[in-house]
Amino acid sequence: MQFWRRLLQISKQQSRLSLRHYSSENWDVISNNEVKRFARDCMTSVGTKPQHADSLAEVLVQADYRGHYSHGLNRLDMYVKDIESGVTVSDKEPVILKESPATAFVDGQNVLGPVVGDFCMDLAINKAKRSGVGWVVAKGSNHYGIAGHYAIRASEEGLLGMSFTNTSPLVVPTRAKKPILGTNPISLAAPGLHGDSFVLDMATSTAALGKIEIHERKQIPIPNSWGVDAHGKMTNNPTDVLNGGGQMPLGGAEETSGYKGSGLGVLVEIFCGILSGSAYGPNIRRWKNTTTYYI
Fold first, then answer.
1. Which stretches are annotated as coiled coil (predicted)?
2. Could you give the angle at the alpha carbon of 75 between the alpha carbons of 27 and 95, nearest 5°?
3. pLDDT class for 286, splitting at 50, 70, 90?
């Protein structure tokens, strides 16, 4: 609470805009633009470039708007602290290390994940328009928000868009004893007639980490298939999962096809970790050195 009060104070000091609240049952509804301003002000107050802050604000607001509350403003404090502590930087820009007409290898140089994500997807889109397909892999990235944000950018250009990222080891694969895979989301966006597009954006675990964190914060149980405790037993206590336990792969236990989720998680590790020559699986540090893949 103290942290959020400080962010609110920073935001109010840097803008004379007043929050416009609209009552909807027991909720206060704030405009997208106002939420983006708040997120942008929080980030620039700790030294983030305005354009980098804009990229992050767009991803966070889109996550909340699309119902991915685990990846919206719920994550803002993480990004602020990462800049403050130097875990991520804002004085650099992503660079292309190697490319062909249809492919590229990018170094994100440890800037904010959404900045790397936008750079790579824009690059993939341009290549696809010229060559028919664009494949881009990046190293040196960070938590980039919802994968669907980047896939949607391609679909808005009339293309099929895909985005993957590996993450910190949080998932206990089938027949394993400890977390060695990330939640490793995958996304596909395909444009349709009259705006009727298809968007898939999902973790390869049964649930995103942020959803378990939200359940812990609200002190409500989670479904048994979401995670295991430190002894490898399924639990509905989110605290047990977060403290020494781990998440379960998509499908849950082996009897309910959890090995399929484990396989999808490995697929993402191959695309994002091995293909880019970066860390993968248990070698990834929390929220750092993740890699991303864009088509």
1. none
2. 135
3. low
Report the pLDDT value the prediction gives residue 18, as an integer from 0 to 100. 36
Contact 268, 173 (CB under 8 A): no
Does residue 282 register a pLDDT over 90? no
User: Residue 14: is its pLDDT beyond 60?
Assistant: no
Q: What is the pLDDT of residue 293?
A: 54
Closest CA relative to residue 214, chosen from 73, 69, 112, 113: 69
Give residue 151's identity as a one-letter amino acid code. Answer: A
pTM of the model: 0.85
Top pLDDT among 60 and 26 is at: 60
| Rg (alpha carbons) of the chain, rounded to whole number | 19
In terms of Cβ atoms closer than 10 Å to its own Cβ (0-12, 13-18, 19+), residue 103 is: middle
- The burial of 177, by beta-carbon neighbours within 10 Å (0-12 exposed, 13-18 middle, 19 or more buried), is given as exposed
Q: What is the residue-wise DSSP string for 37-54?
A: HHHHHHHHTTT--HHHHH
- Give the 3-state DSSP-derived string for 187-209, with helices as H, strands as E and coil as C: EEEECCHHHCCEEEEECCECCCH
Q: Which of 87, 75, 86 is nearest to 42 (CA)?
A: 75
The Cα–Cα gap between 75 and 145 comes to 8
Contact 112, 145 (CB under 8 A): no
Measured CA to CA, the distance from residue 222 to residue 105 in angstroms comes to 39
* Residue 116 neighbours by CB under 8 Å, 6+ apart: 94, 106, 108, 138, 140, 141, 142, 144, 292
